[in-house]
Amino acid sequence: MANLKKQINKQLKRMPKYSIQPEAYENVALATSRAFGRPQEITLAEENLDQSQANALGQAQDVTSSTSGLLSTLAAIEGNKNTAVRNLAQDEAAIRSANTKDLYATKAALAEEKDKAWYQNIYAPWEAKLRNLKERKANKNQFWSSLGGALLSGAGSLISGGVFSGGGGGAGAAGGVTNIDATNTLPGTVA
Question: Does 67 fall in a domain?
C-alpha cells in the first residue's frame, strides 16, 4: 500500500506543469497601453491639421487683397479646422472603444490561461490524490465487508455443523462443548 502511494506521488510530481506563456502578459500590457494611451495616429492628424491651417492662413494673406475677404477666408479655414477636430475626436473615441474591447479580450484570455494553469498544477493533482484515497477507502471497506461476511459464514457453518450444538456427550460449561477446560487450553496441552 505504501509502495502504491509512493508511485502515485512520483507520477504526480512528474505531471507536466502548465506555464502561462509570457506573450499573454505582454499582450495585456500592450492592450492596456493602447486602451489608456493616446492613439498616435490621432496625435499625428492633429499636428497635420495645425500645419495645414498655418499654410492656409499664409496663402490666404497672399491671395486675398481686401480685409473683409481675408476675414471671410480666415473664418472658413477656422470652421474647416473645427470640423476636422470634431471628426478626429469621433475617430479617437471609436479607436479608444475598440482598444478597450481588445483589452477586455486579452484580460479574459489571460484569465483563461491562469485557470488552465491552476487546474493543471493545483486542482488535478489534488483531485487525483483524493480519487486515490476514495478508491483505497472503498477497497478497504470492501475487504473488511468480505472478511466479515466470510467470518459470519464460517461461524454459521460451524454452528449448523454441530460443533457448538451440544451433541457431543457430557454437560460442559458452554452447554455441549466438553473438550475445553477452565483454563481455555485443549486437553493434552500444557498451559
Answer: yes
Tell me the C-alpha to C-alpha distance, in Å, between residue 33 and each of 17, 55, 98, 100, 105: 31, 34, 13, 10, 14
CB contact at 8 A, 60 and 74: yes
Domain that holds residue 81: 18-161
- pTM across the whole model: 0.52
The CA distance from 118 to 31, in Å, is 24
Residue 113 or 144, more confident: 113
Task: Give the DSSP H or E segment for 124.
Answer: helix 124-161
Residue 30 belongs to a domain = yes
Tell me how many domains the chain contains.
Answer: 1
Residues sharing a CB contact under 8 Å with residue 15, sequence separation 6 or more, in sequence order: 120, 124, 125
In a domain, 182, yes or no: no
pLDDT category at 136 given cuts 50, 70, 90 is: confident
Amino acid at 66: S
Query: Shortest CA distance to 32 belongs to which of 105, 115, 111?
Result: 105
